[in-house]
Structures are given as structure tokens and as C-alpha cells.
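Box 3.1 A note on notation
Throughout this textbook, protein chains are presented in two layers. The first layer is the amino acid sequence; the second is a C-alpha cell string describing backbone geometry. Keep the layers aligned when reading.
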Amino acid sequence: MAVQHETELYAPLKAYFEARGYVIRGEVRHCDLVGIHPEQEDPLIVEMKKTFNLSLLLQGLERQKLSGEVYLAVERNRTKKGAHNQRWSEITLLCRKLGLGLITVTHYKTKSPFVEVLCSPGDKIIVPAPKVIKTRAARLLNEFHERSGDYNVGGSHGTKLVTAYRERALRVASTLQAGGIMAPREVRDISGVGTAAAILQRNYYGWFDRVARGRYALTPAGAKALRQYASVIESWRTAAAANERPAE
């Protein structure tokens, strides 16, 4: 069964790697899927496309600047046997030469998708993989760890992503909604966001209004954002309640 959008590959890939001990996040600094394993130093990065093409290959090479564990993932379409982007033995050889991993996802009408790893990063590398740029890798890991959960679907395009910065801005907005007109220091202390003052002053999303010197209020756009991302905010409350619950 052919997929309509590459985002349909995300859930089976997420489940596959979570079963192997990874914590998965979607759309982290332009990477479709990022995973962290407690026993591995490098983050897992997976770039997804409906079919194997040059664009995907170039994405994979670019991601090798961030990690040595980079996979390309595509759909295995059983109705397109013989198509150039379904010649798996040749594509696998190409990925091995470039130090990339390759995964196929087969969808069915009546059963769960099947995930198959055709090769792993580092299998029989013939040419050296590009050197990881440590500063970029550090930014990727920082963005991953700064997010409180997985709120994006890997492979999404043209949608507003829940980044670590947006999460902090939402915490600031939520605090203002509850407290009314407040000083940055008050917002910082209540929200727990250390950069609350900078977020209020920069007002990147247009959510905050400086009503007086050192005093800020929530704008209608901010209230709308809190409604739009209500599920994210509710997940924080659920997590906080679970942490406060006494152990049995």
C-alpha cells in the first residue's frame, strides 16, 4: 500500500527505534527524526522520503556533519518492482560506500508496517564519511534535550514546529495569562524560564505587550497561541502532576 505523505513513515520508524532503547523526537533542527540511546555517544538521525532520490542522499551527507549515525528511510512499494528507486541491492551498496544507513518501510492494508534495515552507518565504508562539526552537533543535542517531549511529526513541512524556544515562550505566555500584567522577574520566577526577560523584550511571536516600563501583558495573539498549543501545555501539567504524586 503506497503512502501519500512521507510523514506516514515516522510512526513505524519511531516505534522501531524506541523498541531498541532510543528516545525519539521529530523535526529537531531540520532533521526528520532524532534519537538518543543511553549507550551511544552520537545521536541517531533519520531522514525520510517517500522514494529514494538525490535530494534524500544529499540530506544524508549533510547530516553526517552532525553525527556518525545517519540513516535514510524510504517506503518499499511492492507495486513498483523494477523501478530505479526500488533497486535495493544497488542503493544499499551506494549507501554503504557513503557510510550511510538505509531503512525501508513496507505498508500493508491489514497489518502493521514492516521496518527493515538494509545497512547500518559504517558498514564497509569505502570512502571516509565527512567529519562531524562539533558545534553543529552540540546545537542539535541541546535542542533535543531542551524540548520537554515529542510534539512534532517527522517529515513535516510548512507547519509551525514546537521548538525549545517556542516551549519557553509558551511557558512565559501561560504565566502572563494567569498572572496578568507582570514584571520580567516575576515571570521568570513563576515560569522557571531563566531567559523570560529576553523572550518578553524580543517578542519574536508578537505574544507580549510592554504596557509600561518593566511591565508586560499577554496580547490576543498570545492567548490564541495558548489555545493552539493547549495539548502541549496540558502535557506539562500531566507530567508535573505525575512527578508530584508520592511513590507507593
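The first helix runs from residue 10 to 18. The mean pLDDT is 91.
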